[in-house]
């Protein structure tokens, strides 16, 4: 009987560096920019150029954002993106949700986890943050992104 060779685990890395992080408890949170002058938030994160037109600050701190929010709007993508964007083959429709983070006064758009379609969502429904595989790059690295799932 031959010996079993362990199968190496797939390498995973964020598709967009700096957009989310995982804390010591294993929970994932988005990273946003927060203006040091007026406390306006922005996502995706950046460290300059406050998005508030009434503020002239050019300094934003990178901060963790809320992990939960409510569905503000949603839709379903039923068509594969054109090249050069990665798309699974065969393509499966997926939901996209705009989730309102109440504490930050911010709406964050993201895919909804596989198995959840637009028919499963309603405006005001509570959602929580997770991550999911977005695509596998040419080097075999699984690229992950933030995603929303219906809160437990």
Automatic annotation (TrEMBL):
Q: Which Pfam families match?
A: OB_ChsH2_C (PF01796), zf-ChsH2 (PF12172)
Q: Which PANTHER family match?
A: BLR3430 PROTEIN
The chain positions of domain ChsH2 rubredoxin-like zinc ribbon read 29-60
InterPro entries according to UniProt: ChsH2_C, ChsH2_Znr, NA-bd_OB-fold, Thioester_dehydratase-like
Taxonomic superkingdom: Bacteria
Chain ranges of the ChsH2 C-terminal OB-fold domain: 63-130
Organism lineage string: Bacteria, Bacillati, Actinomycetota, Actinomycetes, Mycobacteriales
| Protein name as catalogued | Benzoylsuccinyl-CoA thiolase
């Amino acid at each position: 009987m031959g010996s079993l060779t362990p199968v190496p685990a797939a390498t995973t890395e964020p598709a967009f560096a700096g957009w989310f992080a995982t804390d010591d408890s294993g929970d994932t949170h988005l990273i946003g920019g927060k203006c040091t002058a007026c406390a306006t938030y922005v996502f995706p994160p950046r460290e300059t150029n406050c998005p508030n037109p009434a503020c002239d600050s050019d300094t934003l701190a990178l901060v963790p954002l809320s992990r939960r929010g409510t569905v503000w709007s949603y839709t379903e993508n039923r068509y594969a993106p054109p090249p050069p964007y990665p798309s699974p083959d065969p393509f499966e429709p997926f939901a996209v949700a705009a989730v309102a983070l109440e504490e930050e006064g911010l709406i964050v758009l993201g895919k909804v986890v596989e198995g959840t379609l637009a028919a499963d969502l309603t405006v005001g429904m509570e959602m929580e943050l997770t991550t999911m595989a977005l695509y596998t790059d040419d080097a075999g690295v699984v690229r992950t992104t933030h995603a929303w799932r219906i809160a437990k």
